[in-house]
Amino acid sequence: MSSGPGQRAKGDWFPLVILTGAGISKESGLDTFRDPDGIWKRHRLEDVATPEGFARNPGLVQAFYNARRRSLLDRAIAPNAAHRAIAELQAARPGDVTLVTQNVDDLHERAGSGEVWHMHGELLRAQCQACGHSWECREDLGEETVCPECGARGRARPDVVWFGEIPRMLDDIYGAVERCRGFAAIGTSGQVYPAAGLVVEAVRAGAHTVELNLEPTDGLGLFGEGIYGPASEVVPSWVAQFLEG
Ligand code: BV8
């Protein structure tokens, strides 16, 4: 099902900015946040995704992210056709597609995307609170973790952006949105700012905008059109129009 004024000329969409959220990884086996079976139905956001929660109970927060990191590293978790379609589009239009994700998983990279802007950080990286060093880490974090840079023990945290912390690469992201001719939000409920406000900047820049999601979000009124269904179906089909001869 899709709504809006129908397809536009395919050249009109580039430079394109794509913003993805947890919905694109759902069919890969990773939970979203706000669906009925989502993460925020099992954990209080304030307890596990804020600096205050981490200061109050670091063990609880480390356990929350250690469990998600182990899930992500499970052999059963793999990119799906939506991740692959985006990687294919980036390869077909080098430099013309900016991929911004709210997701902390590495499924876009594993699908072949060369450049992924993780505005909320990365689950497979750790950050040292003593020296600020960030490193790739596929192990549990905790009291025994030693920073490879400064040697501090038990000072590592997940290298993700918690509520109240400033998202990454914002200047680059706003720059790309200001220059874009197309903006596509994929698999995001549009509840978290400033990510959810990017479509407003894209409209202001005169870009075509589309949301591709399982179902219409509260932000539908902000998008020129909506295409609804599972990401693994609607994203390859939407991308295909740009790949034909
Ligand atoms: C900040 C951590 C200050 C990592 C996350 C106005 C302006 C600025 C800030 C605020 C503001 N109003 C409120 C704020 C504060 C706050 C905020 O937005 N709060 C919300 C709750 C109201 N924002 C912040 O604190 C941000 N920082 O503002 O700093 C600042 C800002 C700018 C400049 C200077 C200073 C920090 C936000 C980052 C928080 N960290 N995660 C982690 O643990 O993962 S947010 C968390 O939500 C995840 O990152 C997640 O990606 C993100 C968004 O969720 P979604 O990805 O959209 O997932 P969700 O479950 O909600 O939706 C899934 C969708 O998929 C659904 O629509 C569903 O229908 C769909 N779907 C499901 N299955 C499928 C599908 N679609 C397709 N196919 C399917 N199969």
Structure description:
With 245 residues, this protein is an alpha/beta fold. Helix content is 31%, strand content 18%. The chain has 9 helices and 10 strands. The protein has a 7-stranded mixed β-sheet, sandwiched between helices. It has a 3-stranded antiparallel β-sheet with strand order 6-5-7. α8 links the parallel β8 and β9. The radius of gyration is 18 Å and the shape is globular. The two termini are 25 Å apart. The relative contact order is 0.20. The model has no long low-confidence stretch (mean pLDDT 95). The structure holds ligand BV8.
Beta-strand percent range: 15-25%
Q: What's the total number of strands? A: 10
Q: What value does the Rg take, in angstroms?
A: 18 Å
Low-confidence stretches: none
Which kinds of small molecule does this entry bind, naming each only once?
ligand BV8
Helix content: 25-40%
> What is the N-to-C order of secondary-structure elements (H for helix, E for strand)?
EEHHHHHEHEEEEHEHEEH
Task: Record the strand order, biggest sheet.
Answer: 1-10-9-8-2-3-4
Give the overall average pLDDT.
Answer: 95
Structure annotation, total helices? 9
Principal-axis shape: globular
What's the story with the biggest beta sheet?
7 strands, mixed
Distance between the termini: 25 Å
What is the chains' assembly state? single chain
